Amino acid sequence: MKILNKIKSIKALQIIALSIFALASCDEEAPPGLNFTPERSVFDTTYITNTIPAAQATNVLIEDFTGVKCPNCPRAQGVAKKLMSDYPGRVFVMAMHPGKGLLATLTSPFKKPGDDHNSKYDFRTEEAADLLTMLGGTSQLPIGSINRTLFSPSESAILINDNKWPGKTSEKLLTTSIVNIDTFGTKGVYYVDANTIRINVKLTYTSASTDSQFVSIAIIEDSLIDCQEDGAMVNEIYLHNHILRRMITPTTGSQLKASIVPGRVFEKTYDYQFAPNETWNRQNLKLVVFVHNGTNGANKFVVQQVKEYEIH
User: Does 103 lie in the same domain as 13?
Assistant: First the structure.
């Protein structure tokens, strides 16, 4: 009888312990970098070609972390806009509005009691918050990265102030990429129907790499007129461009699972179906496709190549 009671006591303690663990797990956020977004790839193949193309010149991705209640953010957006104008087809921007933590006061739309203005849109996304954490985090805006590169050992962060963007962009544009980004098929990037985007992306490596490689695909939207704090005033007809709407791949990217040697080719097809609440203007949407390193080593996260595509 004593043994039976002891067994019952042990089981009761186990149940209590499991219950406490379950309750604690409900309140705990997933660690930074983990992403459980389902893979949307519907076709995936890899092979090696003997005909290695010439390496493409390296393009630049500016990941601009910004907010509608950030008075200095229009200045940074102006820097990015000028770089796109100076280097057409070579510089691309994703404007990201993180909505967590200390930055929430800078990124929340003008909709709170006491606000003199009323935002039409909420640009905040979970992906922007996750990417900000992944790239090192910050307590200030504006800030951004140039191809997610730590340019010298003397620099301590991937995220840098906008006054450094022109010099670092020029530096990157002088290099060649280890991977060429193209599309395949007769259409490449297009609407399958009114509710689905299809992306046929072809990645051809012209050089070897020992760093793990990932591809990321983002939906951005242009031409959104809404409130923006700009210096000492709020501009109610501010033009917002390059707004990150959704990551089609997981936030950390989709891993390219094969040895990276000259001539390695990956062909991947992704389908993205809009959710009912994603009532974005389809005519103003674009896709940003970029290949980047993984999360290990001295060159972690570095963007190797980026391109932007219209959706037809």
Answer: no
> Is the domain of 9 the same as that of 147?
no
CA distance 175 to 299: 16
Three-state SS annotation for 52-76: CCCCCECCEEEEEECCCCCCCHHHH
Cα of first residue to Cα of last residue in the chain, in angstroms, is 76
Closest Cα partner for 148 from 60, 254, 32? Answer: 60
Range of the domain at 277: 33-310
Same domain, 174 and 301: yes
For residue 199, which of 266, 147, 251, 258 has the smallest C-alpha distance? Answer: 266
Report residue 293: phi and psi, to 5°: -70, 165
What's the chain's Rg over C-alpha atoms?
A: 22
User: Of 199, 180, 177, 179, which Cα lies nearest the Cα of 189?
Assistant: 199
Q: Tell me the pTM.
A: 0.86
Write the pLDDT tens digit of every residue in 59-117: 999 999 999 999 999 999 999 999 999 999 999 999 999 987 779 899 999 986 677 89
How many structural domains are present in the chain? 2
Residues 11 and 151 in one domain: no
Is the Cβ–Cβ distance between 240 and 308 less than 8 Å?
no
Whether residues 161 and 18 fall in one domain: no
> Are 18 and 87 part of one and the same domain?
no
Angstrom CA distances, 214 to 44, 135, 229, 294, stand at 13, 15, 36, 6
Same domain, yes or no: 197 and 105: yes
